[in-house]
Design a protein that fits this description.
Oligomer: heterodimer
Helix content of chain B: 55-70%
Strand content of chain B: under 5%
Strand order of the largest sheet of chain B: 1-2
Strand order of the largest sheet of chain A: 1-2
Structural class of chain A: alpha+beta
Largest sheet of chain B: 2 strands, antiparallel
Number of helices of chain A: 2
Order of helices and strands of chain A: HEEEEH
Order of helices and strands of chain B: HEHEH
Distance between the termini of chain A: 21 Å
Shape of chain B: flat
Number of strands of chain A: 4
Radius of gyration of chain A: 22 Å
Strand content of chain A: 15-25%
Helix content of chain A: 40-55%
Shape of chain A: elongated
Largest interface: A-B, 40 and 32 residues
Chain lengths: 140, 133
């Protein structure tokens, strides 16, 4: 049913964008982490979006109605930030400690983009609600 | 009988237009949802052309026997096309969110207007049946 699929499309995008925001939050929280869960320095994470056909759409409209999903989470292979701290327990032979490769500026701009996209989709859901209401009122 | 079929036709046509608007709304929603998906190509269809196709379907030959063949375009599919972006993105995505949102809003308003017209047609019909408001 056309109008209901709009909710699924907007919902899938909101879910994907919030997952992106989660990744950004993890990155920013770990900007100064020198160890991750695997013992190695933390690497910045980024989500990869992919088109997701909506199964709730009518078969004839499957191609037209596509949402979005997070296909995978990739880790940045940018070089680690090295700081000279000879007294640090994690320092290597030359006294350097590896910190995360998170770039806070990049994360902040990414966060703005993600929150804008989230807002657009929330607004889209609102519009769909109004349209559905109008549709329900036909013939009253 | 003649009047009834005329009324039916008018309401049918309004319904077809509403359906087209809903379909376009879905396409535009997909574009906005995929504004950050690498390689996604924005899509839309020519609304005026789709309305023309819907109108010609209305005038299509009726297939009243098994041997009859429906007129061209009777399948009722709209011609979805890729949008040509004014600026290329490095990830191959061709969605321009600001434009998509303005189209989305415009289409939503048109949908509401169409629903209102349909409502008015039904109200007029009811008025004619009851002979009072």
């Amino acid at each position: 049913m056309g109008m209901f699929t709009l909710f699924d499309i907007a919902g899938s995008a909101m879910g994907a964008q919030s997952q992106r925001l989660n990744a950004i939050a993890s990155n920013l929280a770990n900007v100064d982490s020198s160890t991750s869960v695997d013992g190695k320095p933390y690497r910045a994470r980024q989500v990869v979006f992919q088109v997701q056909p909506m199964t709730s759409a009518a078969p004839a409209q499957r191609e037209a109605a596509v949402g979005v999903k997070v296909a995978s989470v990739v880790e940045s292979d940018a070089p680690q930030r090295k700081v000279y701290q000879p007294g640090h327990p994690l320092a290597d032979a030359s006294g350097m400690v590896s910190y995360s490769n998170v770039d806070p500026v990049e994360e902040m701009t990414n966060m703005i983009a993600a929150s804008r996209a989230y807002q657009f989709n929330a607004e889209m859901m609102n519009t769909s609600r109004v349209l559905l209401q109008k549709t329900l009122e036909i013939g009253r | 009988m003649f009047l009834a079929s005329q009324i039916n036709q008018q309401i049918d046509h309004q319904g077809a237009l509403l359906k087209l608007r809903a379909e376009r709304q879905q396409l535009l929603a997909s574009n906005i949802a995929n504004a950050d998906t690498p390689g996604y190509k924005a899509r839309d269809f020519d609304f005026a052309a789709a309305v023309g196709a819907a109108a010609s379907r209305r005038l299509a030959l009726a297939a009243t026997q098994t041997g009859h063949i429906g007129a061209a375009g009777a399948a009722g599919r709209v011609d979805v096309q890729y949008r040509i972006p004014s600026q290329d993105a490095i990830d191959g995505n061709t969605v321009e969110v600001d434009r998509e949102i303005s189209r989305f809003t415009e289409n939503a308003l048109s949908y509401q207007a169409r629903a209102q017209f349909l409502n008015d047609s039904i109200r007029e019909l009811r008025l004619a049946i009851n002979g009072q408001g």
